[in-house]
Specification:
elongated, alpha+beta, 5-stranded antiparallel β-sheet, 3-stranded antiparallel β-sheet, homotrimer
């Protein structure tokens, strides 16, 4: 039983860029010395988020954007803007709601995911960003 | 310190069936060789979800359904439908928002939950499904 | 590799009190015997929630409250109220949606968080509560 930290970086576009990071997480698991266990996929920051979705253009480029825009519109007035005079209040709230991490199981060095299920990073900020993703692998 | 995988299956009804899986998760913990640790409860798929709730008929059969129908209506138009000509765009978005897994602690082979807190699977698809749930148990 | 349980208590105010618990989680990690691993931060109960946010007054005292009030208003009619004749249906639904736990990685006994990212407990109930938070630390 052991624990290993793997990291990778991605470059994002602003306003709800949805990036498929399944391969990078899979690599983190395969580069570890472990056969089975769990991996905590985590972004250190308050305007990014981690979840899963079927990675196809309809959901990725339209439906997720429309849903989040309905729930937490970018152009609303947020009190956060008065604190710092920046404009990413919606980004913070989206990250708060979806959350910055998720834990996935793996077996025989393979992530246990559905056929149509991919791990995604959601850029919630209104700026393009470089993001470092942490994969904390715990297992045998 | 070790890791063990337990699975169980459930049969679901379409459109927001909410199923109490606390006993099955508890059994997974008790059938393991571990006294304390964490269990990652996970569905492999992109139209199911895991969370907790007080499992009583008001919340389970009405309030959760109404909330999700308000946030992500089944009969809305989703671009996902144009990709595959199926009609579960809302199911994918509900699974994306609530997420497909949650991690729970246990001690003395007992899940640490509130008195009124049950672990639930939420069927977000518009078809009845057979679902396999993974419990990855990590502990001592 | 080992697992240790740490707990701490907080006192909350009703209706969306947002409390910064980063220091307490950090202490749980430092008081453990582990250098690196993951910590599952969890509330046993069905009307509390755990997430992260930049802990500044605009987001904490206004934007999060407004968002949750828009998505799940306290004064709506919930069927949960008919079951028990209490009035915390919104609290249960908020806890269901945001969830009662999140897992964080740590290294060199330090939580891996963004500069502006704090771990928060959200009181969703309509009563002031005393809450026990569990930190299940798993690592090396």
């Amino acid at each position: 039983m052991t624990v290993e930290t793997k990291t990778f970086s991605i470059h994002t576009k602003p306003y709800c860029d949805v990036i498929n990071i399944t391969d990078q997480v899979h690599n983190a698991v395969r580069e570890s010395s472990m056969e089975s266990g769990i991996v905590n996929v985590h972004v250190a920051g308050s305007t990014g988020a981690i979840s899963t979705v079927e990675y196809e253009p309809g959901l990725v480029s339209h439906d997720i954007k429309n849903l989040l825009e309905k729930l937490i519109p970018y152009n609303d007035r947020y009190r956060h803007h008065e604190t710092w005079h920046d404009y990413n209040g919606a980004g913070h709230l989206r990250s708060f709601l979806i959350k910055t991490s998720q834990v996935f199981p793996f077996k025989n060095q393979k992530l246990i995911l559905g056929t149509w299920q991919q791990i995604i990073f959601i850029e919630c900020d209104e700026k393009a960003r470089s993001r470092k993703i942490y994969c904390m692998v715990v297992g045998d």
